[in-house]
Amino acid sequence: MDELVDSTFDKMFYPEAQLLGGIDESGVSDIAGPLVAACVILPHIDTRRDDLKIFEVDDSKEIHKRWRKKHAEVIWQTALAIGIGEVSPTEFDFLSRQDATALAMFRAVVACKSTRNGRVVKPGFLIVDGDFPANVATRQAVIRDADAKSLCCASASIIAKVYRDGIMDKLHERYPFYDWINNKGAPNEYHFRGIDQHGIQAGIHRVRKWPFITNPQYAEDHIVWRRRRRVWRRVTLEKLGNEVGEGLWTQRPPLWTPLPNSRLQPQRVERSGSDTRD
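The chain above was modelled as a monomer; its predicted structure follows.
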């Protein structure tokens, strides 16, 4: 690592509270798996006395994956308290991107427990990475790219990333054709090819977000993607039909349109609400 996190940044907030926490998330832009947020409370570090391995911690995106677990171990050994909050793919589908992130952060703060005795610990002040605050009553500073400035936020970034990567690695063991061991649920061509061949995994893929539906924020070849989405729907419907039996498969997932000439024609389900964008 060429440059360490600025060890003086968090010190600016030491007068705010004895228990200073950092919050960051992982997985907000992915198309499969949960959104995970972490809240990490570090002690006020004395550079003359404390173990300075914690200063090697940086934003998880700047650390090679082979070292992230090592950094996570140092954080667990050093932190006063850690909390992890998850928002499931199904929950993510029914929330805006901002609301889903706020919910994950809220759950992380509520789940914050001592790394020593497991007791609930409430931070007195929060440094939040991003553009909007966590939905908690705790006083906080919202700072863009805080995970590259604040040691607490960098620690939260690593804890959230390592925790979520572990989830996706386990899902890969069950569904290896999506290449989640490498992409961790991110949208890329290997992931798309897995969906081409095996369809969508209900409850794991975020089916109400791009690329499963159109989104004006993303440039795409409409003809190519319309054709590809048809394939995804057909393969998924046929897979589910084969699993539960055509006679039982009478209701299609919300937001999906009937496919012409499909072997399976589920009954029409009316949906309420028209806002399907992030």
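The chain has two domains: 10-171, 210-278.
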